[in-house]
Amino acid sequence: MVMATSTKRVIALFDVDGTLSVPRRGADQPTLDFLQELRKFIKVGIVGGSDLKKISEQLGAAATQEYDYLFAENGLVAYAEDLDIPIKRGTFIEFRNGMLNISPIGRNCSQQERDEFEIFDRTAGIRKAMVAAMQERFKDFGLTFSIGGQISFDAFPTGWDKTYCLQFIDKDFDDIHFFGDKTFVGGNDHEIFESPRTIGHTVNSPIDTLQQCKQLFIDSAV
Question: How far apart are CA 101 and CA 151, in angstroms?
Fold first, then answer.
């Protein structure tokens, strides 16, 4: 394989859930191997809303050493009883550095219940309705609400979305690419996807992510 000869400095940032892995599951070995191959051509960074422990569980224990940049929690290190949803478990609100993660079904649900809620929510729009209500209720508080993953959404001070990590990216990069699956308005990839500092790419699965990256960064360099 011929290496790229361009002196242009490029970095690609990747969301985790739905982009590099099936939500809340580990990325498969071909994906992990591809990311290391990709590092021969460009810099690679990970930016996720979860904490470092959860990201490491999905990308491997050595994740902190295997990528050029790794940003956990976007680079930041009573409502439930009235919801008409089939199942409610526990841990409806999880405190993270710089944000609250809010789950209508509760983070203690099983993987099967996560999958079922995600399908249910596509039609019922539970999270979208909750985000809309909170945007109206807390409109003067300087907060942003973003849907992410399968079962939850985040609440954080405006400006503390995934664009927060960009301040730590070397300003000498010519291009910063971002790949994410929740790039729609209200999704937790939307702000960084739309940022004037990035070239945004919407993906629908880990396979789609790898295909787009191969076409953009590897096939064009051979």
Answer: 10
